[in-house]
Amino acid sequence: MLDTAPLQDAYHALIDAAATVANADDPSPAPPDGEWNADQILAHVSLVSAATIAAVADVAAGANTTYDNRIALDAWTIDQTIAHAGGNAGLRDRIRSQAAALCSLAAGAALSDAELGTLVPARLLSNDTLLIDQPLPLRDIVTGLAEAELPGHTKQLLALLPDQAPAETTR
């Protein structure tokens, strides 16, 4: 059994930060050099969330799966995700729905402890740096969103607000 409360909290914080940035006096604050704007951050999070949902669903279905975030770093894919979602508000709605789906799939009796312990071949990059290239328990992939991925992008979003310090790179 996986407690998804921290994941729900991390998604809520990210969505609240995105709404704060969208409602700021400067609706399109420029990111620091080499960083993403708010829509690009949200598209990346949406793609990562979709990949996580797919991995969780595959394990629940008894299928082989992998977890690889490279597509969520691809500029063309990010731009297409923004366009398909209809921009910032659509991305926030999409992420809100993905959060609900992921938390439902990963919580309670949906997955056993054995399934959460399933080793999933994982490859994770950040700013062209390989962070992980080894099997990870599915549980760690899901909790990694709550502990690192979502909080990092929440900080990155908030750094887009006027008078904020530059965000730490979290791509």
Q: What's the short version?
A:
This protein is mostly helical. The chain is built from six helices and three strands, in the order ααβαααββα. It has a three-stranded mixed sheet.
Q: How would you describe this structure to a colleague?
A:
This protein is mainly alpha-helical. 56% of the residues lie in helices and 11% in strands. It contains six helices and three strands, in the order H-H-E-H-H-H-E-E-H. Strands 1-2-3 form a three-stranded mixed beta sheet. It is globular. The relative contact order is 0.22. The model has no long low-confidence stretch (mean pLDDT 92).
Name the overall outline: globular
Q: Beta fraction of the residues?
A: 5-15%
The CATH fourth-level homologous superfamily: dinb family like domain
- What's the average pLDDT? 92
Low-confidence blocks of residues: none
Distance between the termini: 30 Å
Task: Briefly note the structural class of the backbone.
Answer: mainly alpha
Number of strands: 3
Q: Please report the first level of CATH classification, the CATH class.
A: Mainly Alpha
CATH architectural type: Up-down Bundle
Helix content: 55-70%
Over all CA atoms, what is the radius of gyration?
A: 16 Å
Q: What is the number of domains?
A: 1
Task: Please name the CATH topology.
Answer: Four Helix Bundle (Hemerythrin (Met), subunit A)
Order of the strands making up the biggest sheet: 1-2-3
Sequence of secondary-structure elements:
HHEHHHEEH
Tell me about the biggest sheet? 3 strands, mixed
